[in-house]
From TrEMBL:
<dbReference type="Pfam" id="PF05580">
    <property type="entry name" value="Peptidase_S55"/>
</dbReference>
<dbReference type="InterPro" id="IPR008763">
    <property type="entry name" value="Peptidase_S55"/>
</dbReference>
<dbReference type="InterPro" id="IPR036034">
    <property type="entry name" value="PDZ_sf"/>
</dbReference>
<protein>
    <submittedName>
        <fullName>Peptidase</fullName>
    </submittedName>
</protein>
<feature type="domain" description="Peptidase S55">
    <location>
        <begin position="92"/>
        <end position="314"/>
    </location>
</feature>
Length: 314
């Protein structure tokens, strides 16, 4: 339990019940490591930051606006279209408690910049199955930082992201990647599910020439303590290989330590946004980064790719 308290999710913002059983028989996967922008369109509008209204009331972070003057609201654009009335009443819900907030038209317009209807963030693409054309990423579930829960969503997309800057990790202070979606803004794939073991969907990009060659999956009983490689992007959109040591193997989960001097110098170890980075040993696909140790950022945890491919546990 002591170690668990020191683990911090290496995730997006930090971000579905499709079980990826289609991967269970995959013999070879393409290891990736590219940084991706992730966007989930939600079927509701929520407040992203606390807002003090002129009448002294608050719209609190995480409040969901369900109705405007009695009309159901499912998106920010729909809310904007309804702001023609002089007096506005928001129906607001949080933790199953409902209340009404009255505003003038001007006050409602001033609130708009604090409203969202999507979850977005940065993570790392783990693999592509060349036979089914399905992908997996992150190695853990997306939890919206404001809603504090895995969000329901109507559709989702992944895009290639470019690393513009690194905030280096230090003991007690997790670092992170500062990334932007590439200028061409081409969707790489959809998001069908947000599972306990990552996000999964269909790969749509035609640019297969730039992909790495498929490699065999390493069975869990064959994983060894010692040297392995981590694939990830820390500058631009180029994926690099860095050395690590696997230090512990327990069931379907691993612990490792970054030994690559270049990576330690650049990042201090593991960063937020590296979740999903593939781990390779002896030329075979071992797993994906999922967590970091906050007080020892050179240390991380991972899930085996065999476990990642399984149906979400009940």
């Amino acid at each position: 339990m002591r170690h668990l308290r020191n683990l911090m999710t290496v995730a997006l913002l930090i971000l579905f019940t499709f079980a990826p059983t289609i991967y269970a028989d995959a013999k070879k996967l393409i290891p990736m490591g590219e940084s991706i922008g992730i966007q989930l369109q939600l079927p509701f509008v929520y407040v992203a930051h606390d807002v003090l209204l002129p009448n002294g009331e608050w719209l609190k972070k995480g409040d969901v606006i369900t109705e405007l003057n009695g009309r159901k609201i499912i998106s920010v654009s729909a809310l904007k279209d309804e702001l023609s009335d002089t007096n506005i009443t928001f129906s607001v819900e949080k933790n199953k408690e409902k209340r009404e907030v009255s505003l003038t038209n001007e006050e409602a317009n001033n609130v708009l910049p604090f409203l969202k209807d999507e979850t977005d963030g940065i993570g790392t693409l783990t693999f592509i199955d060349p036979e089914s054309n399905q992908y997996g990423a992150l190695g853990h579930q997306i939890i919206d930082g404001v809603l504090k829960a895995p969000p329901k969503f109507t559709e989702g997309s992944i895009f290639l992201a470019s690393i513009e800057q690194i905030k280096k990790s230090s003991p007690g202070h997790p670092g992170y990647k500062i990334s932007v979606i590439e200028k061409n803004n081409i969707r790489l794939g959809d998001i069908k599910s947000n599972e306990l073991y990552g996000i999964f969907g269909t790969w749509e990009s035609d640019n297969k020439q730039s992909l790495r060659q498929p490699i065999e999956i390493m069975h869990e009983e064959d994983i060894k303590l010692g040297k392995a490689e981590l694939y990830t992007a820390i500058e631009g959109s180029d994926v690099e290989k860095f050395t690590i040591d696997i230090t512990k193997i327990e069931d379907s989960f691993l612990q490792f330590k970054v030994t690559d001097k270049a990576l330690l110098e650049k990042t201090g170890g593991i960063l937020q946004g590296m979740s999903g980075s593939p781990i390779i040993q002896d030329g075979k696909f071992v797993g994906a980064v999922t967590h970091m140790f906050v007080e020892q950022p050179e240390k991380g945890a991972a899930i085996t790719v065999v476990e990642m491919l399984k149906k979400t546990p009940e």
